[in-house]
Amino acid sequence: MRRNIVHMGASSLSYEIREIVLVARQIKQMGQEITWENIGDPVQKGEVVPEWIRDIVRGLVDDPQSWAYCDTAGVPETREFLAGNVNKRRGGVKITTDDILFFNGLGDAVAKVYGFLRREARILGPSPAYSTHSSAEAAHSGYNHVTYNLDPYNGWQPDVEDIRNKVKYNDSIAGILLLTPDNPTGAVYPREILLEIAEIARQNKIFLITDEIYAHIVYNGNERSHLSEWIGDVPGLAMRGISKEYPWPGSRCGWLEVLNRDKDENFATYVNSLLAAKRLEVSSTTLPQMSIPKVMGDARYTGHLDRREAMFDARAEEAVRAFDGCDEVIVNKPGGAFYFTLMFKPGVLNDKQTLKIGNKEIREKIEQLTKNVAPDKRFVYYLMGATGIVVVPLTGFQCAHDGFRMTLLETDDKKREWIFKTLRAAIEEYIES
User: What is the residue range of 378's domain?
Assistant: First the structure.
């Protein structure tokens, strides 16, 4: 090309969770049966959406309006319903229908939120980082994503002093991102930590973003929490959706709750730019939006949420028990979402360790792939080649710690038991090799 057409942030668009799928498919073609533990899709792992929710969706198919464009910001009745939920059920910041803005899934929302920031304005996010956020933030700026630490020795809780110092000494930081419950760690942040972070934002005149896609999947003694309840007078954006909650990941239906836009003129102008960007697309997915008042307003929905939380709580406990006594790893029981993160203690992994792989073609492929990679990525590839289990290396989440993330989504009890036992045995074999 006579001119360079590549965006300066293109190299930051990395998504280890799905990139590892390309390798797994090659290994599958060589004869290894694959067990997918990398992607958080409950439906693909066997969860069946309740019949009553499917009945609602079936009924909407017969509504001609569900086939049409909706308003740019979203279906008015749905936005009114969601704003009413915020105002009636939560307490805290009150919002209007105009403060709900729909997108084609939270991936679309994330792209817009970072893409329409001024390039010099940075968002400070957690490490381990969820790739969709970290890649989008880095791509918009053209520099590496700026992060604060989550502490594996303290249940993956945010290091508040690290946040405070990075905000104080880096005036390019315009906002702080939190994922609670967190992906990949499953950590849920207590109210006192959230209030501290809100105060840091207030003192430094920056805004907050929370990814609340798992806000209604919490357990292990934790309570559901929303940004509107603890943000005070700080401007903020809360990201919500139905993909993990119904669950309906294929719906591509997510939204923003805009909080305290009237507190800062610059923030209000920025929010208006998000709406202007949506106008260029006409509308977001109509039918899934129309389902929200009918599903979330149904008396059965609370029981549906409670049942799923109890289910994931039991599976999280099962995962923790599976690695009890494995002294080379650090395991924190998740408090929400449906992921489980295992961290190897420092110095445990090296570039000489292997697992036995009987298939010569697969073994040679894995040996080729593991040259000059991070230690945990080396383990993940050997695990895939030897057992077919696909997990995601923790360093793939812009993290300095070695480990991996897997899901708690397997619905077959015997297979889930096999996965945990196989992982435990593979770790022990690998470390001893």
Answer: 10-47+302-432
